[in-house]
Specification:
With 346 residues, the protein is an alpha/beta fold. The chain contains nine helices and ten strands. It has two domains: 142 residues, ATPase, nucleotide binding domain (Nucleotidyltransferase, domain 5, 2-Layer Sandwich); 167 residues, Nucleotidyltransferase, domain 5 (2-Layer Sandwich), CATH 3.30.420.40.
Length: 346
């Protein structure tokens, strides 16, 4: 038996990764993931195919997570699941499975906002590895394919969104660049790799002028589109000849946009504990820039392990742990939510 430890089973199915994890007092016992390769040929996630793959994967993934953790359902204290935001069809699979498991096992349900999960992934403890975690309050730069936000985190479950994108997310800008340069899907890692070989000062693209701490990325995507159209008209091989420089320049401009608002947020709040999270937090250019600014400005910076930058159930279980401590349980008639109005979704 696990004694008096709080054991949380986490389930994540917001997009195209099916994941299940088990945490005991925030210590990671297992984190199993099934990725979907089917979307590569379409250049992006196809929602219908994603939900079908979740249906195939969720039973073996949850079963494997429990087995790897050496935990039976009788030892689980609660089932935490992603309620949203995400693709509705994908979320439906995870939510429905969690509800069925709760009904059959008699365990309570805990709904989790996917975005909170990315932030609280920094509180997952891995045995045998050094553990650092931010002190409250801290600022979180949340960067992913669907969201870009600066969040002031006052406590484990107290989030205040200071700024958000008014149009596209930074991850969408990376995806658009990859598509225009014919780099395949997912293109973000390819841009990151090519950027290391290129000259980031070679090209410049239009940067937004948005007031306050909000972001905008639609303009820079359009700027790249028109720039490539004009250059390719002059030289059909322009993209191939300049691929590394284009990736390096575009990536640098995106990071400049992100950092400009983060620097402003630090100035306005005087908070010097800085966290990043979300899929784009795997980008090596962004990671080094955050660390560099941290050293220069006296910040304490926290970068997630690369395996916690993708959608994973460990982060969902982490939020579940803190909600369990406060008795924040979810009724069985819960429905998934594709768009979360803010990070305080209960």
């Amino acid at each position: 038996m696990m004694g008096k430890r709080t054991v949380i089973l986490g389930i994540e199915s917001s997009c195209d990764d099916t994941s299940a994890a088990v945490l005991a007092d925030r210590c990671l016992l297992s984190n199993v993931m099934a990725s979907q390769k089917v979307h590569e040929q379409y250049g992006g996630v196809v929602p219908e195919l994603a939900s079908r793959a979740h249906q195939q994967n969720i039973v073996p993934v949850v079963d494997q997570a429990l087995k790897q953790a050496g935990v039976g359902m009788d030892e689980v204290d609660a089932i935490a699941f992603t309620r949203g935001p995400g693709l509705l069809g994908s979320l439906l699979v995870g939510v429905s499975f969690a509800k069925g498991l709760a009904l059959s096992s008699g365990k309570p349900l805990i709904e989790v906002n996917h975005l909170q999960g990315h932030i609280l992934s920094h509180f997952v403890i891995e045995e045998g590895k050094p553990h650092r975690e931010p002190q409250f309050p801290f600022l979180a730069l949340l960067v992913s394919g669907g969201h870009t936000q600066i969040v002031k985190v006052n406590d484990y479950l107290d989030f205040e969104v200071l700024g958000r994108t008014i149009d596209d997310a930074v991850g969408e800008a990376f995806d658009k660049c990859a598509k225009l340069l014919d780099l395949g899907y997912p293109g973000g890692p390819v841009i990151d790799r090519l950027a290391k070989e290129g000259d980031s000062a070679r090209f410049r693209f239009a940067k937004p002028n948005v007031p306050g701490l909000d972001y905008s990325f639609s303009g820079i995507k359009t700027s790249l589109l028109y720039f490539l159209r004009d250059e390719v008209a002059k030289d059909p091989d322009f993209v191939e000849k300049n691929k590394a420089d284009l990736c390096a320049s575009f990536q640098k401009d995106l990071i400049d946009i992100l950092m400009k608002k983060l620097l402003l947020a630090v100035k306005q709040t005087s908070i010097r504990q800085i966290v990043i999270g979300g899929g784009v937090s795997a980008n090596s250019g962004l990671r080094s820039r955050i660390e560099e600014e941290g050293r220069r400005r006296g910040w304490t910076t926290f970068l997630p392990e690369l395996r916690f930058t993708t959608d994973n159930a460990a982060m969902i279980a982490a939020v579940g742990h803190f909600k369990y401590e406060k008795g924040l349980f979810t009724p069985l008639d819960v429905a998934p939510v594709s768009r979360a109005a803010d990070l305080n979704m209960k």
